C-alpha cells in the first residue's frame, strides 16, 4: 500500500509538471498572438501617413519587426520543442508509473490471497487440533476406566491386599503378571493330577 501511495504521489507530481508546461506553452502562444496584434496596430498607425512616408516607415518597421518576430519565433519554437520533448518524457514516465501501480496492486492482491489461504489453513489446523484433543481426552478417559477395572480385578482376588497408595502402571502390570503366572501354574498342577 505504501508503494502504491508513493507511485501515485510521483504520478501526481509528473501530471502537475505536465500541466505547468502546457500552461507555459499556452502563455507563449498567447504572447505570440499579442505580438501579432501589436504589429497590426503599427500597421494601422502607418496607414494614416502619406504614401511615401508610409512606405519608408513600413519598410524600416517591417524589417525590425520581422527580425524581432523571427527571433521570438525561433526562441519560442526552440522552447516549444523542448516542452514537447519534456511532455513526451513526462507522459512516458506517467505510463510507467501507472504500470508500476497496476503491478504493485496485483502483487498486493496475491499477498492478500496467500494470507487468506494461510489463515484458512491455520483455522483448519486449529479445528484438527481441537478434534485431536477431544479424541485424546476420550481415549484417556477410556484408558483410565480400563485401568481402574484392571486394578479392581487384580486386587479383588482372594489373598491380595488393597493398595495403600496410587499405583504406577508397572506395578499394575506386575500384579497382573503374577496372577497370570499363578493361574498358569495352577492349571499345570491340575493337568499333572489328571483333572479337567
UniProtKB/TrEMBL annotation:
The keyword Coiled coil applies. Residues 4-38, 73-131 form a coiled coil. PANTHER family: COILED-COIL DOMAIN-CONTAINING PROTEIN 27, FORKHEAD-ASSOCIATED DOMAIN-CONTAINING PROTEIN 1-RELATED. The lineage of its organism: Eukaryota, Metazoa, Chordata, Craniata, Vertebrata. Keywords: Coiled coil. This is CCD27 protein. Signal peptide: none annotated. The keyword Cytoplasm does not apply.
